[in-house]
Every structure is written in structure tokens, then in C-alpha cells.
User: Which sequence fits this backbone?
């Protein structure tokens, strides 16, 4: 079993839709969590950190449930430019950063 | 600022050949990393350097060596390339272990 698991998708949604991605992590020692975005054939870039209290950045909301070892990302009012792969990341402490395989999103006009 | 740069962008090797992937960052970051990305696997940490002068193994170090040449540069060497090392290699850097990692554009390596 992978330490960080994501639904690979793809998710195909129309512009303006709300889409939610889920991610589970198996190591309870994981301390910090992130969502990265990766465009096709490009490098990953940080989208947002995920805090226990939940956090929002414009159309993006991230939630963490430590009891269930579950992280989510909600995208509201999807734009064509949101089409990308979204990577869930768990950091155990020190330099042990574990990336999920990613969830692909296609937003269509 | 160029951020994190990597050379080459593409490389094709034959089994048994050696090569070095170069990485440099101009953000004065202390920590640097090498990852590989394979379909369905996500990014996996090969080696990292917490600070200048130190290097440590990550999740998949076998078949690789690294050198932290100075604070800016962190190279990855394949001594005897194997087809299983066909992958996209990303270098990253961060101010410290707790900070955001910034990635380079990647090197696409094919080993025949």
C-alpha cells in the first residue's frame, strides 16, 4: 500500500463546477501536508499548505482530518486554467516528504 | 532570479553508460533534493542534502550518487545506467526542511 494515496482520476468537469479531491495517508507520524499542482510536462508547484483548522485561498479550500488520516482539496467555480494534476504531499518530519501519484483534472468549456 | 535550473533537459543513454545531472539554485537555499517521477508512482526522493557539505539517502538511492558541490549546486550521477532508471528527474531546493520546496524544470532521461 502506498503511503499517500489519491484517486488518479481523471476528473472531467465543466467550467464553473465544484470539484473535490481526496487523499489518504497511512503514516500517523506525518506532520505537515500540502497540495502541489503540476501542469503537463512541467515541474510541481506549491498550491497550498493544509492546516488542521482548514484553510482557504480564493477558490481553493483544503481540509485535514488527522483522526481519519484524510486530506481534501475543494475547487469552486472551476476555470479552464485549473486543468492540471494535483499532488497530495505528506511530510513526516525531517526530510521525509512523500508525494501521492496525483489526480488529473480536466476542465472543459 | 532563475530559481532552480537543471541540465540537460533531455538525455538518451545506452545501458551501462554514465552521466551526471546538474542542478543549481540561486535562492540561497540550504536544502536541496533529487526526485524521480514515474507514471503512477508519484515523485520519489532519491537523495537530499540538508545543508552544504551533507548528503543523505532518500527512498530510492540505489544506482545513484550525489555531490553537493557548494551551496548552489547539487549533482546526481548515474554510474552505470539501467533501463529501470528511465524517468523524469527533478531537482528541488528549500530554505530548510520545513519550508516549501521549489522545483527545477526536470530532466527527461531514457536508458535504452
Assistant:
Amino acid at each position: 500500500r502506498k503511503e499517500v494515496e489519491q484517486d488518479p482520476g481523471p476528473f472531467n468537469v465543466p467550467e464553473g463546477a465544484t470539484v473535490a479531491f481526496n487523499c489518504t495517508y497511512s503514516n500517523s507520524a506525518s506532520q505537515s501536508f500540502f497540495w502541489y499542482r503540476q501542469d503537463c510536462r512541467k515541474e510541481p508547484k506549491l498550491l497550498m499548505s493544509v492546516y488542521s483548522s482548514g484553510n482557504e485561498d480564493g477558490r481553493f479550500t483544503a481540509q485535514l482530518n488527522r483522526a481519519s488520516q484524510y486530506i481534501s482539496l475543494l475547487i469552486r467555480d472551476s476555470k479552464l486554467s485549473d486543468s492540471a494534476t494535483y499532488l497530495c504531499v505528506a511530510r513526516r518530519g525531517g526530510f521525509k516528504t512523500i508525494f501521492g501519484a496525483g489526480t488529473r483534472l480536466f476542465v472543459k468549456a | 532570479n532563475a530559481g532552480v535550473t537543471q541540465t540537460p533537459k533531455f538525455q538518451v543513454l545506452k545501458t551501462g553508460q554514465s552521466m551526471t545531472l546538474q542542478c543549481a539554485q540561486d535562492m540561497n537555499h540550504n536544502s536541496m533534493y533529487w526526485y524521480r517521477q514515474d507514471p503512477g508512482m508519484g515523485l520519489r526522493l532519491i537523495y537530499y542534502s540538508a545543508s552544504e557539505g551533507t548528503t543523505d539517502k532518500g527512498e530510492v538511492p540505489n544506482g545513484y550518487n550525489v555531490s553537493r558541490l557548494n551551496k548552489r549546486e547539487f549533482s546526481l550521477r548515474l554510474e552505470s545506467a539501467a533501463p529501470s532508471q528511465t524517468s523524469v528527474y527533478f531537482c528541488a531546493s528549500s530554505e530548510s526542511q520545513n519550508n516549501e520546496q521549489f522545483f527545477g524544470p526536470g530532466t527527461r532521461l531514457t536508458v535504452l
About this structure: The interface with chain B takes residues 2, 4, 8, 32, 34, 42-46, 49, 87, 94-102 of chain A (CB under 8 Å). The longest strand of chain A covers residues 84-91.
